[in-house]
Amino acid sequence: MSDPLERLRDLQRADLPVHGGRTLAYVYDSGDAEVDRVAREAVAAYAASNALDPTAFPSLLQMENELVGFACDLLDAPDGAVGTVTSGGTESILLAVQGARDSRPDVLRPRMVLPATAHAAFHKAAHYFGVEAVVVPVGPDFRADATATADAIDDDTVLVVASAPSYAHGVVDPVTDIAAAAAARGVRCHVDACIGGWVLPYAARLGRAVPAWTFAVEGVTSISVDTHKYAYAPKGTSLLLHRDAGLRRPQFFASAAWPGYTMLNATTQSTRSGGPIAGTWAVVQHIGDGGYLALAEQVLAAVDAIVTCVEREPALGLVVTPDSTLVTLATDDTLDPFTLTDELVSRGWYVQPQLSFEGSGPTIHLSVSAGTLAHVDELATALGESVAAAQAAGPVEVDHGVVAFIEALDPTALTDSDFDGLLAASGLVSASAEGDLELPTRMAEVNAMLDVASPAMREALLVAFLDRLQRPVRTS
């Protein structure tokens, strides 16, 4: 019989590395092997524990309350503030929207006002919970327009949203003005600090200029902050904090409408593995406030160094000066961003392409970690080599006939055969000799084709792509 752990190690060889500071999306690396050891041992110790019932596993309740207390101190929360550990930023956002909706049963058609740069999880919440997303523009600096936000609030608005920072551009919205506009209308204001919540307070302590965004801002009623990002905790935990317990109460769900135990949930989940909670608690205890200050200093130094690297490359530029740990790059006409992405990946640096949106061209996104600082010189070399290689290769061109074909399609009426043809044309999947799907090793042509498609067509193509990938592997 084969060793399943050996097979796991073999399977994992195809994955992106989660350590070494070179994966600049999806994972966050402290650069400290001891942090990883503490997290793994704590997760393993609690892998079979269940946070569903706090009376059965009171240690998990204690850990959760201590994590919330640490975050309350970090985010200037007043006495009486409360919070919940969730599975990630999306669940925190979903609960913020659901709680806001359910706090206003008098509103038959609830709406929420959010900037165009708000995380897609708010649109997911709108889809799930029947809350209309009223999207307002951002300024040339990619920050939310506070005046447009205020003008969009009406009697049916149950929530107003701001980001600290926005994911795509890494800048903090004018939370003070947005929260004031919401408070003037008696509306909740949620700050999505999933990315910045565990690093911006330390950036301010280090003397960085950070716009006000915490509970110190009057009118902010809830904040989401991901511990599996810059708290460097294992996947997947996040925190949703509320200014007071009354604001959180609509988030809770209870049901005695069946013959089993009375269901009582603080999140969208019932069963919650104790592993991520214990792993997060152990990491936060291990690193501590002073350790997070040092890690923030390291990651911000890495950001500064990367900005300097970019400034040395004439074909590259910053989309906007970063407020935190997210760096967004633009390219000039001599440099194709999708080819540049492939060249960086081929040199061991994973960066994330972002497609064109509302008149802005494609960009390249970097989520910088503290673990990246030790490797910035290597990144500078890889960046220079990648720019030269991408310029030599030239831009990726999408055949005009393919463009016309895509533009003529209705994404809501595509058949399975249409999907299969588009997937094959896009290069998203190909069939091996054994009939298995094979993922492309270079993505420039795929991204170029997606870039010319409408947002609705991109969604349809990627849904089809996911559907084709997630098919059963039978062993009998």
Automatic annotation (TrEMBL):
Belongs to the group II decarboxylase family. Sphingosine-1-phosphate lyase subfamily. GO terms for molecular function: transaminase activity. Its cofactor is pyridoxal 5'-phosphate. The keyword RNA-binding does not apply. This is Aminotransferase class V-fold PLP-dependent enzyme. Keywords: Aminotransferase, Lyase, Pyridoxal phosphate, Transferase. It comes from the Bacteria. InterPro entries: GrpII_AminoAcid_Decarb, PyrdxlP-dep_de-COase, PyrdxlP-dep_Trfase, PyrdxlP-dep_Trfase_major, PyrdxlP-dep_Trfase_small. The lineage of its organism: Bacteria, Bacillati, Actinomycetota, Actinomycetes, Propionibacteriales.
